[in-house]
Structure formats: structure tokens, C-alpha cells
């Protein structure tokens, strides 16, 4: 068992914990008749000034036909074809038609995180920018029910060439549509393979406050839909991530991962005539794009659903620690790093800090951890590039 990091900045950490609860207590008790959403789908990458997004969220069939794909065949299993000619990769290519009944309990149970790791050598060859590796902080379970304390946090299920996969995500506020956000923040590697050979993942669904009672994996198997997905399941109808992630422009590994730009935002669309995701869940968290220096932050907290052993993906966990710096290359910004024993499955989960106004805000997301172990997590700084990705989505689709 790894040693646990000694308590530091105890008063500050206690404040963060308290604010986490307060920020999410406005979440509404999930309705018994919550149903999965029905929606069409699409997406874009970041962009120099603005991501190149289509004019609307409709026309999925036409978009697929442009690539020689029939939407009916796609729903009947053609989506399993990952040949290079069928794997859509450009920002304008994303398409995510709803396939009713696809995400069965069995498929969710088999889902694995396409976990991103870096070797200890890569993490230490930082040209003097990285701080010493933090001591592990033991991940602790979130209080229950999740809808009361962390309703904005949830699981993201999706398909990859290797099979069903899972990540974590956070429902975030949309300033252009106050109180009515349909935007979810996560990692780029949870939606797109990244690098010159990668493409968009498929059948992407967000489930806020998954397993809100905190049932064990065994108990969850026999639980009803309301316990597993208290607010329903929301299909992404568009996704935007950074061009750097799509192209792998600062990749430090053979797979092409530009981890410093490993972030994404999903737009989900509830059934016609129903409330927005934020109205349904009852709460959302703001994003802080100021990229604060780690030295100026007493504590950051990471939330998610770790799935790899010793965890099983059923329960929401969190780690809180003072952040430091991790640099993988001198050509890209440094990343935040904290001690944390969460494993694969927590990818994409939000990192939060207390702002000067005393409120909790999302400031990063889980991107990478150390290869062969679980002692720390790192996430990208969310600066101007991340804000452009978010603003483009908000301006174009926020009200839809």
C-alpha cells in the first residue's frame, strides 16, 4: 500500500470540501420517470480563432452519406466498422446518431477507460520545469446520494476500435444560457483518438450522478434504471476538442497524444419539449479559464469514477491536494499535477478549485497518470485555447 500524503493546508482543503457539497446541494432529487434522451449528433475541434462547426445540429444522415455511410446501416451495426475510410477524424466529421438500447448493462460493465499514461522518464525529462513527483493521496468516496453532493459529475460511455469504453465528465454552466446549460466538460482522449491515425469515437453518452445511491457493483447489477441513471442518459449531438489534440501537434508518445491540450466539451440534447440538462439535474459548475499558477492555488480536487483495479467503476471518488507542475515538452504549457490514487475511468473528470469569489469552479480535467502505477494525476491548464473551444460551442449550439 502506498503511503498517504501528509495533511497540508488543512484549513484550505476543508473549505474546498465544504464548498463542493454546497455547490451541488441545489441538485434536484431525480424524478422517478427520468428517461434516456433521444437526439441526433455532431462535433468540431478547437481552432485558431473559432472552431469550424456546421450550421445546425440536424442532417446527420446527410453528413454520414457524404462519407459513403448509410445511417440505417450505421445504426444496425455499421458503426463497428473502424476501417480508416470509415473512421471519421476531422473536426467537421463528428456524427453520433442515437441507437436505442445500445448501452445495455452488459456493455457498460465491459467498458474500459482508454487510459492515457506516461513513463516516469517522460514525466521527469522536463528541462527543469516539472516539480518533484507528489506523494500519493488516497482517493475517497463521495458522499451519497450523489444527486445531493455532486450531481454535476457523471460517467461517459462510448465505443472505440478496442471495444466499449468509459470516462468521467462534468455538467458545466453556459454563461450565454444561464440555468439552461447542455454542455459537459471532459478529456479530448474520451472523444477522439488523437494523432494522425486517430478519429472520433462513437455512441457517446453522458449519465449524470451515475449510481447516485453509491451501490456496490454487485448490488448495481440488480438495481433499477432509476438507481443507475437517475436523470437519464444523454447522447452527445456535438463535440468540440482542440486541434492540437486531433492533430497531435505536441505529441510526446508514439500514439500522438498532445496531453497539454487534452480537453473537450460535449453538447447534449434532451428529448424535444423537455428541460435542459442543467434544469433536469438542478445544478452545474462554472469553468475558470484563467489558468492560475499552481503556486497560487492551495488545493485542487479531482472527481471521477475510477474503474481499473482496485476500483470497479461503480462509485464516485475524489482526491484533494496542492497542485504542482508537470512539463512533458518545452513547446507546450505545463500541466497541473496532484497526488491521487484514482485509476483509469477517472479520465475526463473535472478538477475544481476555490476562486477568489469563494465559489468552486472547474479548472482542469484528468488527462494522464503514471504508467504501471497510480500515484498521481495530471490535467491541462484551461487557457485561451480551451476558452475558444467552449465559447464556440456555447455561441453556436448553447441555446439548442
From TrEMBL:
* Membrane spanning residue stretches: none
Which Gene3D superfamilies does the protein's record reference? Answer: Trypsin-like serine proteases
> What range does the record give for the signal peptide?
1-23
Q: Where is this region: Disordered?
A: 25-59, 105-141
- What does the UniProt keyword field contain? Signal
- SUPFAM superfamilies noted in UniProt: Trypsin-like serine proteases
- Which PROSITE patterns does this entry report, sorted A to Z? PROKAR_LIPOPROTEIN (PS51257)
Q: Which InterPro entries match?
A: Glutamyl_endopeptidase, Peptidase_S1_PA, Peptidase_S1_PA_chymotrypsin
Q: Where is the composition biased (Basic and acidic residues)?
A: 105-115, 132-141
Q: What is this protein called?
A: Secreted protein
Amino acid at each position: 500500500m502506498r503511503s498517504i500524503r501528509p495533511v497540508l493546508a488543512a484549513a484550505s482543503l476543508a473549505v474546498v470540501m465544504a464548498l463542493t457539497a454546497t455547490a451541488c446541494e441545489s441538485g434536484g432529487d431525480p424524478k422517478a420517470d427520468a428517461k434516456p434522451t433521444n437526439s441526433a449528433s455532431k462535433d468540431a475541434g478547437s481552432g485558431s480563432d473559432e472552431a469550424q462547426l456546421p450550421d445546425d445540429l440536424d442532417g446527420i444522415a446527410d453528413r454520414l452519406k457524404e462519407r459513403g455511410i448509410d445511417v440505417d446501416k450505421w445504426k444496425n451495426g455499421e458503426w463497428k466498422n473502424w476501417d480508416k475510410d470509415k473512421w471519421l477524424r476531422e473536426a467537421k466529421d463528428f456524427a453520433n446518431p442515437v441507437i436505442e438500447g445500445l448501452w445495455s448493462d452488459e456493455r457498460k460493465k465491459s467498458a474500459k477507460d482508454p487510459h492515457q499514461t506516461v513513463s516516469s522518464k517522460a514525466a521527469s525529462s522536463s528541462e527543469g520545469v516539472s516539480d518533484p513527483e507528489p506523494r500519493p493521496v488516497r482517493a475517497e468516496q463521495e458522499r451519497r446520494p450523489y444527486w445531493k453532493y455532486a450531481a454535476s459529475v457523471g460517467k461517459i460511455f462510448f465505443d472505440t476500435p478496442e471495444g466499449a469504453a468509459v470516462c468521467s465528465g462534468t455538467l458545466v454552466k453556459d454563461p450565454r444560457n444561464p440555468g439552461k446549460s447542455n454542455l459537459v466538460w471532459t478529456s479530448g482522449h474520451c472523444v477522439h483518438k488523437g494523432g494522425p491515425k486517430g478519429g472520433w469515437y462513437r455512441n457517446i453518452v453522458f449519465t449524470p450522478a451515475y449510481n447516485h445511491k453509491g451501490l456496490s457493483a454487485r448490488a448495481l447489477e440488480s438495481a433499477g434504471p432509476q438507481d443507475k441513471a437517475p436523470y437519464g442518459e444523454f447522447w452527445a449531438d456535438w463535440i468540440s476538442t482542440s486541434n492540437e489534440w486531433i492533430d497531435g501537434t505536441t505529441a510526446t508518445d508514439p500514439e500522438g497524444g498532445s496531453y497539454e491540450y487534452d480537453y473537450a466539451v460535449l453538447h447534449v440534447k434532451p428529448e424535444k419539449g423537455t428541460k435542459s440538462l442543467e434544469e433536469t439535474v438542478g445544478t452545474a459548475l462554472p469553468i475558470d479559464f484563467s489558468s492560475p499558477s499552481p503556486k497560487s492555488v492551495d488545493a485542487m480536487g479531482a472527481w471521477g469514477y475510477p474503474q481499473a483495479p482496485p476500483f470497479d467503476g461503480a462509485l464516485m471518488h475524489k482526491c484533494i491536494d496542492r497542485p504542482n507542475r508537470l512539463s512533458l515538452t518545452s513547446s507546450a504549457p505545463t500541466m497541473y499535477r496532484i497526488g491521487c490514487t484514482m485509476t483509469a475511468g477517472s479520465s475526463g473528470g473535472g478538477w475544481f478549485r476555490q476562486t477568489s469569489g469563494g465559489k468552486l469552479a472547474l479548472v482542469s480535467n484528468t488527462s494522464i497518470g503514471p504508467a504501471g502505477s497510480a500515484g498521481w494525476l495530471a490535467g491541462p491548464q484551461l487557457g485561451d485555447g480551451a476558452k475558444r473551444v467552449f465559447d464556440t460551442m456555447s455561441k453556436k449550439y448553447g441555446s439548442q
